[in-house]
Design a protein that fits this description.
The complex is a heterodimer of chains A (530) and B (512). Chain A has 18 helices and 16 strands. By secondary structure, chain A is an alpha+beta fold. The longest helix of chain A has 30 residues. Helix content of chain B is 33%, strand content 17%. Classes of the chains: A alpha+beta (530), B alpha/beta (512). Bound molecules: adenosine-5'-triphosphate and magnesium ion.
Chain lengths: 530, 512
């Protein structure tokens, strides 16, 4: 999407003009992003010149889709996508706060204050704001209820409420399933699988694994119960190797001989698997599944199918690890001395076919420590939208677990920080205090935009919130339904500590860089590279 | 019969030009009435849509920058379901729709494509002349960099390498590779086309490393596309690119975007649309060696013979069209032949057939045009080649007689190459409608005969030496943008040294 506002001719502005240019670029990108903020932000449908559709409310996705021409705007965009890379959230807020910091600074500079003094003030304010953040954070116990609150808050800013509730449950249960005591959570152990099918609210958590492939033999069983799972990384396909290839240096007979030997070698491997299956399963109600990271050729599939074994080839590398965690057992690199204890277990393994796509479900695992979120939706762009939301939800949950704390949302943090910064400002001597005031003012952009996006007047709302905040020790936020002050704690509206912290840090740094633009120009634009 | 499937990867805008022509040419050659000599299952795959329609699309993944697709939807049209109305309360931000050119409009309405289109002027990007429809997983765009935008240059190797390091891109891309290979019953290896003088080289080399890790037994045949240039940044990218191929591919064949002089075509050397067509014709012809139904070779045979003793680089040549005159037999044509059979399409490289190893493919000429039967043969009977009984034998004999110490493998395919629109109509007046020279023509040329070769020999060493000399002139320390994106100065030195080592592999005259 080309946004004309962001697209002034890329002139090399002289230092004096550069600031003005920076501020207008920041405003431009802010205007585009504003309407995203919060659960009442508007959903955006991006349509490319070729008709590709993308639906999103996510600042990060939007920034990636935009064609940003102006270098300043793209610097801000990069800072906020970096924000997303680190914490998975807070891109919209970053853009808004940077824009607002520049606007506030512009007023002061217009009154004759040197940009350097402004940035000094910003820096003091930043340090103080971090202190305030620490004092306001709420330590939490890691339990389902608390995690659900933060997941719901995050997801409701991305998808409609009914779906957000479904996804919040799915995400929290997924993380709780793979979380082991005191070890950091590895989100890679939650597989996200898309299926273009049914509707988005059919998205579910599978306590096991879903693979995006199936068996490639018509006679293989499509559904097995009580299964041994053999996970391996062992080639079961005959391949020409460099030794037995070429047309200049070897005769056909020489090659044929080597081919024969190679084929027998592969067959021996397959027979080892079959022997193990016979030993463990024959005469019992148990069955046998092979999941191989390497290839399995039609001849080997045929041998396995005759024994009623289900075999999958070319599993993804990461699924080797996931399978071991979901089903138990270990991924084998060879078939010598195979033991029952090296195998995993699943209550049921079955295949599902959709058009040319096959899926294999490995379910009813004993204590699955790797699970799959099966994302459903009627079309590709819905699937993408949900996948993005789920990723954000998972990260919000994981951030909460790592922080062991949450921040009251709905603008409560910003209103409180504003109040305390204004008090702090009075204790600081010199002109840099003006910068502190400007910083405090800039933070209010968050509750203001939350109000505007819900159809309330920004000024009225701020006044109400500040009044309530003055009389109340607890942080006060905005109820988007009524426009009245609430205690976000009671409403279960929480943000991540790490996200807020990151926003505070990166916004101050970027805004200051843009203010000290003449110095930056001297140092060369390359120093701005993110 | 089972196909030995190949997966093709295209990295970069020019690679996609070449690819677009190549897929077009193949599809134009599909035969629906009689069996084909060519096994199209090698490069294409059969699929089914959710609506149960059967599809036949390239087994292909390509990468290009955001904004380079113009009218081509990312997912293609084949698998799309009827679009639904926009959900309530969305703000629609629509880019102005891209206008399709006349050719694309006619494809959409299933019109017969027999008009003369002014594609020379209308083609802005490769999708403008793309006829083949793709599988939804084929097209990948890099979101971080904008096509043709000087504010987001994608111009140095490490930018591409860093992109691969970002989880999402490489994860999605390698998943798609795996999805394709999982479907194959007898996967034989990879074709890789890449732009070698910009950051796409960086993505390519990272991807090569991945292929080495996950598919170590599968050969990779690389075609780095070179825009001959003296721009130091281009050359540094090229050096890193070649170095990556030398380490991680089975064999690679640099191809130039600056075509040599041909007798019967007049391409505009500045038009990508033209120059890429020449390379596509080369690749389509050359690869018949392992794409015919009768083929005994697979990629690994070609790669392992050519790459013996570390000779990872080979060169390619083409004769386009192969100039058989109307009413003339193959034997007459060879008898009056002057100079080399084909022209080099590898940069900085003159191919000398002496003391070389080569693979030659001749396509389009029917066996009946080999020579005349004895009762009508007249002069032909006096030629020593008259005793040859088929095209393959005669061409092999010709090569033996006209070169010294050469080992050749000749492949012959009777099917001509289809060069209807959207292939460029850059043939000279002397080329007839079905490719015969001086056959008279009305309307565009539809089919031609071609010949292409893959070669290795001392001349490859000469090419590497030329490149090395250019590289030595570059004060690479000056190009700090490489360093700030993670390439150390030492790395350049080591890379240059390795290219010199590679050159040394070609010193030995005795190849066989
Ligand atoms: N139910 C709610 N009521 C009021 N405010 C809310 C509610 N849920 C979230 N918020 C506020 O919305 C803001 C987050 O909005 P949003 O997630 O759209 O933007 P972001 O996090 O800055 O960027 P990103 O697009 O990357 O997520 C936070 O300030 C949060 O406190
Ligand atoms: Mg958010």
């Amino acid at each position: 999407m080309a946004i004309s506002l962001l697209n002034p001719k890329a002139e090399v502005a002289r230092a004096a003009q550069a600031l003005a240019v920076n501020i207008s670029a920041a405003k431009g990108i802010q205007d585009v992003m504003k309407s995203n903020l919060g659960p009442k932000g508007t959903m955006k449908m991006l349509v490319s010149g070729a008709g590709d559709i993308k639906i999103t409310k996510d600042g990060n996705v939007l920034l990636h889709e935009m064609q940003i021409q102006h270098p300043t705007a793209s610097l801000i965009a990069r800072a906020s996508t970096a924000q997303d890379d680190m914490t998975g959230d807070g891109t919209t807020s970053t853009v808004l706060v940077i824009g607002e910091l520049l606007k506030q600074a512009d007023i002061l500079i217009g009154e004759g204050l040197h940009p350097r003094v402004v940035t000094e003030g910003f820096d003091k304010a930043r340090a103080k704001t971090l202190e305030i953040l620490d004092s306001i954070k709420i330590a939490i116990e890691i339990n389902r209820e608390n995690l659900l609150d933060v997941a719901r808050t995050s997801l409701r800013t991305k998808v409609h409420q009914i779906l957000a509730n479904v996804l919040a449950d799915v995400c929290v249960d997924a993380v709780l399933a793979i979380k082991s005591k005191d070890k950091p959570v590895d989100l890679h152990m939650v597989e996200l699988m898309e299926m273009q099918h049914k509707t988005e609210t059919d998205t579910t958590l599978i306590k096991g694994l879903v693979l995006d492939h199936g068996s490639r033999h018509p006679d293989m069983p499509k559904r097995l119960k009580n299964c041994y799972i053999l996970t391996c990384n062992v080639s079961m396909e005959y391949e020409k190797s460099e030794v037995n290839s070429g047309f200049f240096y070897k005769t056909a007979e020489e090659r044929e001989k080597m081919v024969q030997a190679e084929r027998e070698f592969i067959e021996q491997r397959v027979k080892k698997v079959i022997a193990l299956k016979k030993k463990l399963c024959d005469g019992t109600d148990k069955s046998f599944v092979v999941i191989n990271q390497k290839g399995i050729d039609p001849m080997s599939l045929d041998l396995l199918a005759k024994e009623g074994i289900m075999a999958l080839r070319r599993a993804k590398r990461r699924n080797m690890e996931r399978l071991a965690l979901a089903c138990g057992g270990i991924a084998l690199n060879h078939f010598d001395d195979m033991q029952e204890s090296q195998l995993g277990y699943a209550g049921v393994v079955y295949e599902h076919v959709l058009g040319e796509n096959k899926y294999t479900f490995v379910e009813e695992c004993k204590i699955p420590q790797s699970v799959t979120i099966l994302i459903k939706g009627p079309n590709k762009h819905t699937l993408t939208q949900i996948k993005d939301a789920v990723r954000d939800g998972l990260r919000a949950i994981n951030n909460a677990i790592e922080d062991k704390a949450l921040i009251p949302g709905a603008g409560a943090f910003e209103v409180t920080a504003h109040k305390e910064l204004m008090a702090y400002k009075d204790t600081v001597k010199g002109k840099s205090r003006l910068g502190i005031g400007a910083y405090a003012e800039a933070l209010l952009v968050i509750p203001k935009v939350l109000a505007t996006n819900s159809g309330f007047d920004a000024q009225d709302t701020i006044v109400k919130l500040q009044e309530e905040s003055r009389n109340n020790k607890e942080p006060i936020g905005l109820d988007l339904a009524s426009g009245q002050p609430i205690n976000p704690k009671d409403a279960g509206i929480f943000d991540n500590y790490i996200v807020k912290k990151q926003i505070i840090n990166s916004c101050s740094v970027i805004a200051s860089n843009l203010l000290l633009v003449d110095e930056i120009m001297r140092a060369g634009m390359s120093s701005l590279k993110g | 019969m089972s196909a030995h499937e190949i997966l093709t990867l295209q990295f970069g805008h020019y690679s996609n030009y070449v690819g677009a022509h190549w897929w077009n040419v193949q599809e134009a050659g599909f035969r629906y009435d009689s069996p084909s000599e060519i096994n199209h299952d090698v490069l294409f795959r059969e699929g089914v849509t959710l609506k149960n329609e059967v599809t036949f699309t390239p087994r292909l993944l390509l990468v290009d920058l955001k904004g380079s697709l113009k009218t081509l939807p990312q997912e293609g049209e084949l698998y799309s379901l009827p679009s639904q109305s926009a959900p309530d309360q969305v703000e629609i931000i629509a880019q102005p729709p891209e206008e399709k050119n006349e050719f694309q409009k006619d494809i959409e309405t299933n019109a017969t494509l027999t008009k003369i289109y002014d594609l020379e002027r209308q083609v802005r990007v490769w999708s403008d002349f793309l006829y083949t429809r793709f599988h939804p997983r084929t097209v990948n765009t890099v979101q971080e960099y904008q096509h043709d935008n000087e504010n987001t240059p994608f111009d140095i190797f490490p930018l591409g390498a860093n992109l691969w390091k970002k989880d999402q891109f490489s994860e999605d891309f390698s998943d798609k590779i795996r999805n394709y290979i999982e479907e194959c019953n007898s996967f034989q290896g990879f074709h890789i086309l890449c732009d070698s003088t910009d950051a796409f080289a960086g993505i390519t080399v990272s991807c090569l490393e991945h292929l080495n890790d996950d598919y170590d037994t599968k050969p990779v045949l690389g075609f780095p596309l070179v825009q001959p240039s003296t721009n130091p940044i281009h050359l540094l990218n090229l050096a890193l690119c070649f170095d990556g191929f030398a380490e991680h591919s089975s064999l690679f064949v640099p191809l130039t975007s600056k075509p040599p002089q041909f007798n019967y075509i007049a391409p505009n050397p500045d038009l990508k649309y033209h120059t890429s067509a020449i390379l596509a014709a080369t690749l389509d012809t050359l690869s018949l060696n392992y794409r015919l139904k009768s083929a005994k070779n697979t990629l690994i045979d070609v790669c392992s013979d050519f790459a013996t003793n570390g000779r990872k680089v080979a060169t390619a040549s083409v004769c386009l069209p192969f100039p058989l005159k109307t009413n003339e037999d193959f034997i007459d044509c060879l008898n009056t032949w002057e100079g080399h059979l084909s022209q080099s399409v590898t940069p900085w490289c003159d191919i000398n057939p002496d003391n070389s190893l080569q693979l030659v493919v001749l396509r389009g000429i029917p066996e009946r045009r080999l020579k005349k039967p004895p009762n009508l043969a007249e002069k032909q009977r006096n030629y020593p080649a008259y005793r040859c009984n088929d095209l393959k034998e005669m061409l092999s004999y010709f090569i033996v007689c006209t070169s010294y110490g050469t080992k050749s493998e000749v492949t012959v395919c009777g099917e001509q190459m289809a060069v209807k629109t959207p292939f460029p109509g850059f043939f000279t007046e002397r080329v007839g409608n079905t490719g015969d020279i001086d056959g008279g023509r009305s309307g565009p040329v539809e089919k031609i005969n071609t010949l292409a070769g893959l070669h290795t020999g001392k001349f490859v060493g000469t090419m590497l030496e030329t490149l090395s000399q250019e590289l030595e002139k570059i004060k690479y320390k000056k190009y700090h943008q490489f360093v700030s994106e993670g390439v150390e100065n030492d790395q350049f030195r080591e890379c240059f040294d390795r290219l010199l080592d590679l050159k040394d592999c070609y010193e030995d005259n005795y190849l066989i």
